[in-house]
Amino acid sequence: MTTPTIELKPSSHPLSDAEREAILANPGFGRHFTDHMVTIRWTEGRGWYDAQLVPYAPLSIDPANMTLHYAQTIFEGLKAYRQPDGSVATFRPAANAQRFQASARRLAMPELPVETFIAAVDALVTQDKAWVPSEGEQSLYLRPFMFATEVGLGVKPANEYLFMVIASPAGAYFPGGVRPVSIWLSEDRVRAVPGGMGDAKTGGNYAASLLAQAEAAAKGCDQVAYLDAVEHKWVEELGGMNLYFVYGNKIITPELTGSLLAGITRDSLLSVARDLGYESEEGRISIDQWKRDTENGTLTEVFACGTAAVITPVGTVKSAQGEWTQSSGRPGDVTMRLRKALLDIQTGRAADPHGWMHPLG
Ligand code: PLP
Ligand code: COI
Question: Are residues 111 and 221 in the same domain?
Fold first, then answer.
């Protein structure tokens, strides 16, 4: 498969420096978008073609567009970070490209070549480099996605798709910075089932999480933790983040069963933890164990991790079985050490021993 060359058609009216700076002063998460976007088309028989970088603009969608009805759509999330010398680098884009291919396979969509995915992200970040913030933990969040563009109501894999990349300057995902989030442990609603799409990054998984999320909010919690769909016993992940359990010097994350997302932050932390002298492993944690080990003091910290939210400590956990609090409701030492070590690599303040950073020209 040949990689289409991305034709650059930049905007003649990008935001002024002053307008952009005003946004970067308080970007929030996913509220503002840069001046450009990348689009690449795929049609059966022709493959990938018409790769362009164009001004950010709304799309015109036919009411019978298949995605609107049957949700054949996938996405990714990765970040570009400003480096100390003023240059910009993305974090593990090839890992996102590979996961995007895995999601495409699960939804019977065409696989975008890894090098095309990376070239599209590079083109957008290079064009909109001025949008990469340089303050503290801020970054430029990149959202590659693909959806069916065929028009029709027959239920089948579409014969045409649009791949796009958009970018959004990002501050803290949770307003209020690093403070422990409270978790509602949902014992009846599930996010994903064995054989389903839980390990694909597809809109339906997020739609499935919204009602439980609203119920969590009504109970005063920030996020939902989902359990396995068969025994309703094994902890899987949050709606948009993986979980880690800290037992003294060892960190454990739920193993990949097919119904949770193989997070790139999760994977990176298995290595970062070892670099810092901790043990790290994948395993199974039941809700009973979560509660019991918190109460007997062996489970010292719990944290959530993901691209958007980096590493976020877990504070109070509420469930039908009662309520308990991790590490007295304060961010734990291991959590904060891992958080700093990962952010130091991403922002170029520390060496990159695993070759994760992808510098832009
Ligand atoms: N789990 C879900 C359901 C997610 O949406 C995300 C976010 O991408 C993650 C986990 C964390 O994955 P990553 O670290 O690759 O961002
Ligand atoms: C991410 O961390 O990239 C996510 O996808 C989480 C959420 C914004 C969907």
Answer: no
DSSP state, 329? G
Q: State yes or no: pLDDT of 1 exceeds 60.
A: no
Confidence band of 126 (pLDDT split at 50, 70, 90): very high
d(CA 82, CA 86): 6
Tens digit of each residue's pLDDT (9 = 90 or more) over 168-208 = 999 877 666 688 999 999 988 999 999 999 999 999 999 99
Count of domains forming the chain: 2
- Return phi, psi of residue 266, to 5°: -55, -50
Domain of residue 28 covers 7-170
Question: Looking at ligand 2, which residue's alpha carbon is closest to its atom 3?
Answer: 77
Ligand 1: lining residues by beta carbon, under 6 Å: 77, 237, 240-242, 261, 263-266, 306-307
Helix (H, G, I), strand (E, B) or coil at 161: strand
Does residue 208 sit in the same domain as residue 242? yes
Distance 39 CA to ligand 2 centre (A): 21
